Structure to design on (679 residues):
């Protein structure tokens, strides 16, 4: 069975990595073509020169009969249907003493002798070869040739075949070329094998990214600005006895711009930038990772001052001394080499190592100590002002409508990373292009926000009336409970249009970025999350699978309240977790609880108590506001989506007819600017 990693070319199997480039494929086909041509040439030359091999007695008979056939006075030649019959009178008595039959045209007229090899050319152009060992021991044959006037000479049989000589020499040359190419290719393969030990770092000498391209992280810029000064004016700090930092570790959630910060530092300092991923050091061959580390630092020393950037350093920087490989696996060898290179016996002045990770908790302590990564800079999610600046940066090359207000968009995108905001603008641009618009407007931006949060709308999905009704009551339950709970975020949008994996959604957006969550707010969140399930229980008189995600979030929040955040009066101000919260290769392969079975039972009871209390609150809220629940569900069934204004009207006691009329009157203005209600 052919491997998935091999490709067949002309019956030969080559690894994919050896024929990835177009140049490699062309060379391979040229080699195969030359090999085929060389083989054909040799075969042709051999066939031209060798002739047909026959027995020596037949060879002599064809030559001696030639002489007799020339003496018509002593014999007779009879041609009978392609057979030449030679009749000879040897003694002159008038009778034929000898009769020989020779195939027509097989009479040899010329013989070339090279040692014991005889080559004869017949009348019809055929070539015959044989070996006659007694040629020089008896002169009878040569005497017969002399008498008959046969043309023979002692020479190389190939001397008269110029074309065969040319073809033979050419074939040999082609074979030599083919073998040379094969040897070169083999040598190149060996070189590539040895090149495994070479670093895969990509060097950039003209980084155009600047700090102005990185928005929303002013404090982080100030920390990194000192690194730029170190690289630009090292003497300024060395005169005061300051030591250039060996390494800078950027820590933060995905998409916050850690890699961009590293490029900006190199761009501001104007120094070479060596970028490599942590996984680039890991190979199946022993010692390759450590060799690549050495090669990387050797290249950096030749180009100092410079920056080495290792992205996702947790791939090789995890805790040592545990896991499947014990203390001597390949990953640990690579990490040991990194530790030595950063702060070992050799000096690396002018080489600053920058690394990025979102898993700083699993890095080896030796990597985190001063002298290695001297500085750890936390790149957090941007706040509302940072999000506004990031939106402006990513919108530089995009045509926007005049009424676009990034301040409003930034306020409703709490929790978005820089990558999320960039994706938001990109999705908006795609939507505008799809609709053949010249500018990106508020409609596209609003849809981009929702698409990033929950996925694309699936309006074409066929939804039965029963499912539509269940979804409407489910989402209405969420919205009403959220409005009745004091600490819940404001409800901005309620929809029964499927998005992503959700049949509907209730969108709440905070007015500001909360750094902390209080116990009462968490309890209100749990109550709101259970509002959908409670609405199904009250109206449908049954329960569905639609609340599965709600229950997952509720369970997780209740567990953290009890075991991590100390929000249980019975369990007190303690955390109840495991001795290893993070399971990964290189650390403990399993977790062990640090509390007793009685405590585990108490934890379960407390979680049930929190969830059941929230469930009772949700039941009371929806029971007291049953008319609002029915009216909101009716509006959702007819209009599919309502916004904060309609939710306010319904909570004030307006019936569904009045709300629908209000929506029809304001649909046009809302379509122009969906962000208007947030301003």
């Amino acid at each position: 069975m052919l491997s998935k990693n091999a490709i067949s070319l002309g019956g030969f199997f080559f690894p994919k990595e050896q024929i990835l480039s177009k140049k490699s494929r062309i060379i391979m086909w040229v080699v195969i073509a030359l090999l085929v041509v060389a083989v054909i040439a040799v075969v042709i030359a051999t066939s031209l020169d060798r002739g047909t091999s026959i027995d020596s007695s037949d060879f002599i008979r064809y030559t001696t009969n030639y002489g007799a056939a020339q003496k018509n006075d002593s014999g007779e030649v009879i041609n009978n249907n392609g057979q030449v019959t030679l009749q000879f009178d040897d003694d002159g008595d008038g009778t034929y003493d000898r009769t020989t039959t020779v195939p027509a045209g097989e009479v040899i007229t010329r013989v070339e002798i090279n040692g014991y090899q005889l080559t004869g050319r017949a009348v019809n152009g055929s070539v015959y070869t044989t070996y006659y060992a007694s040629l020089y021991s008896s002169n009878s044959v040569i005497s017969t040739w002399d008498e008959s006037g046969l043309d023979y000479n002692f020479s190389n049989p190939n001397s008269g075949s110029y074309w065969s000589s040319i073809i033979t020499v050419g074939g040999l040359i082609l074979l030599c070329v083919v073998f040379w190419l094969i040897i070169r290719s083999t040598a190149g393969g060996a070189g590539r094998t040895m090149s495994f030990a070479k670093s895969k770092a990509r060097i950039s000498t003209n980084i155009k990214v600047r700090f102005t391209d990185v928005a929303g992280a002013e404090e982080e810029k100030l920390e990194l600005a000192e690194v730029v000064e170190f690289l630009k004016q090292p003497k300024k700090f060395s005169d005061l006895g300051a030591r250039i930092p060996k390494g800078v570790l950027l820590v933060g959630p995905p998409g916050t711009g850690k890699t961009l910060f590293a490029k900006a530092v190199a761009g501001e300092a104007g120094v070479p930038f060596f970028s490599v991923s942590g996984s680039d050091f890991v190979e199946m061959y022993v010692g390759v990772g450590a060799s690549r580390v050495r090669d990387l630092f050797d290249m950096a020393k030749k180009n100092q001052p410079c920056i080495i950037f290792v992205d996702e350093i947790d791939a090789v920087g995890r805790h040592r001394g545990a896991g499947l490989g014990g203390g001597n696996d390949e990953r640990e060898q690579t990490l040991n080499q990194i530790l030595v290179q950063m702060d070992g016996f050799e000096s690396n002045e002018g080489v600053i190592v920058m690394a990025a990770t979102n898993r700083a908790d699993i890095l080896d302590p030796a990597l985190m100590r001063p002298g290695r990564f001297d500085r750890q800079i936390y790149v957090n999610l941007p706040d509302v002002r940072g999000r506004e600046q990031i939106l402006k940066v990513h919108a530089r090359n995009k045509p926007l409508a005049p009424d676009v207000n990034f301040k409003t968009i930034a306020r409703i995108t709490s929790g978005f990373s820089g990558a999320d905001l960039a994706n938001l603008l990109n999705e908006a641009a795609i939507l505008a292009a799809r609709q053949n618009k010249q500018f990106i407007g508020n409609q596209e931006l609003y849809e981009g926000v929702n698409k990033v949060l929950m996925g694309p709308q699936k309006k074409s999905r066929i939804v039965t009336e029963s499912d539509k009704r269940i979804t409407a009551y489910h989402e209405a339950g969420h919205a009403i409970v959220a409005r009745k709970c004091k600490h819940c975020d404001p409800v901005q949008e309620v929809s029964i249009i499927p998005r992503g994996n959700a049949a509907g959604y209730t969108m709440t957006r905070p007015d500001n970025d909360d750094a902390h969550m209080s116990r009462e707010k968490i309890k209100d969140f749990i109550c709101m999350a259970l509002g959908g399930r409670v609405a199904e229980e009250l109206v449908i008189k049954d329960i569905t699978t639609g609340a599965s995600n709600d229950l997952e979030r509720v369970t997780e929040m209740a567990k953290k309240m009890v075991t991590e955040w100390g929000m249980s009066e019975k369990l007190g101000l303690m955390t109840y977790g495991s001795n290893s919260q993070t399971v990964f290769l290189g650390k403990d392969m399993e977790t062990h609880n640090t509390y007793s079975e009685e405590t585990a039972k108490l934890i379960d009871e407390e979680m049930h108590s929190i969830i059941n209390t929230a469930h009772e609150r949700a039941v009371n809220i929806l029971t007291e506001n049953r008319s609002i629940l029915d009216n909101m569900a009716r509006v959702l069934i007819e209009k599919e989506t309502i916004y904060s204004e309609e939710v306010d009207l319904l909570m004030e006691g307006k019936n569904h007819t009045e709300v629908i009329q209000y929506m029809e009157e304001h649909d046009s203005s809302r379509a122009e600017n969906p962000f208007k209600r947030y301003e």
About this structure: The two ends are 65 Å apart (CA to CA). The first helix runs from residue 22 to 50. The mean pLDDT is 77.
